[in-house]
UniProtKB/TrEMBL annotation:
Protein name: VOC family protein
Gene3D superfamilies: 2,3-Dihydroxybiphenyl 1,2-Dioxygenase, domain 1 (3.10.180.10)
PANTHER family documented for this protein: CONSERVED PROTEIN, GLYOXALASE-RELATED
SUPFAM superfamilies: Glyoxalase/Bleomycin resistance protein/Dihydroxybiphenyl dioxygenase
Record InterPro entries: Anthracycline_SecMetBiosynth, Glyas_Bleomycin-R_OHBP_Dase, Glyoxalase_6, VOC_core
Domain of life: Bacteria
PROSITE patterns in the cross-refs: VOC (PS51819)
One Pfam family, short name: Glyoxalase_6
VOC domain residues: 13-128, 142-257
Provenance organism: Streptomyces inhibens
Length: 258
């Protein structure tokens, strides 16, 4: 489920994950203790923001919500774009919504937008300039997979195919409503249709998977740090995984790969 650096730069491929939290300092403390991340400021265009580094390489971003913005605390998957303005127009033309941007991040880092698909799942668009996105993936403490969790793949799959040029590969099992999204033959993301199991409090959403060396130990650590285990460790075709929430309630999945 890992992707090579060149693949992540392809238009449409997930290239960055970013979290908006209520307390930047508390969030840095949580993820620093869980994943070993170190933080550096910037870009600051949208308010307090820090980039997370692992072994000196950029892996994620964490921003602080303005006190008057009562938005859910959640991870956002950013998809790469050669032209954020063109991609934003394609989103609108295909039934999605653009809620923020496109606009420039400061220091010429890049151009971004925040959009949502026809089912309401929020995602970001990133046109990198000086900052291209995640420098490393697949290693413990880094994003390893991004997956859209929605009611069914049929209602939203064509949107992502048309806007981002994905080739969708259906799951081999008729019992599983799943599309693997591919670019030039490389699997870069997935869409999981879960029907009535879709969380009512979240609706359709993109899920970020972070690699860990030991899912059971990482789950215990999440609890020690003030987070919660929402779905306990379990085995899957790709490894041992658990769905957890951080100390402010942002949900993500941890995965110990085979």
């Amino acid at each position: 489920m890992t992707t090579e650096a060149a693949t992540r730069r392809m238009p449409g491929a997930p290239c960055w994950v970013s979290l908006l939290a209520n307390s930047l300092s508390a969030t840095q403390e949580f993820y620093g203790a869980l994943f070993g991340w170190e933080f550096r400021p910037g870009p600051q265009h949208f308010g307090p923001y820090a980039r997370a580094f692992l072994d000196g390489r950029e892996v994620a971003g964490v921003g602080e919500l303005a006190p008057d913005r009562h938005l859910p605390v959640s991870w956002t998957t950013y998809l790469s774009s050669d032209d954020a303005d063109v991609t934003a127009e394609q989103i609108r033309c295909c039934g999605g919504t653009v809620g923020v941007g496109p606009l420039d991040a400061d220091d010429d880092a890049g151009r971004m937008a925040i959009g949502s698909d026809p089912q309401g799942a929020i995602f970001g668009i990133w046109q990198g300039r000086s900052m291209m996105g995640t420098a490393i993936t697949g290693e413990p403490g880094t994003a390893v997979w991004n997956e859209l969790v929605t009611q069914d793949t049929e209602s939203v799959g064509p949107f992502y195919e048309h806007v981002f040029g994905f080739e969708a590969e259906p799951a081999a099992s008729a019992d599983l409503d799943y599309l693997t999204l591919q670019l030039k033959g490389q699997a870069v993301a997935g869409i999981h249709g879960v029907g009535n199991a879709l969380p009512r409090d979240r609706g359709s959403h993109w899920m970020t998977y972070f690699a860990v060396s030991d899912t059971d130990a990482a789950s215990r650590r999440v609890t020690e740090l003030g987070g919660r285990v929402l779905q306990p460790p379990r085995d899957s075709a790709h490894g041992r995984l658990a769905t957890v929430a951080d100390s402010e309630g942002a949900v993500f999945t941890i995965l110990q790969q085979h």
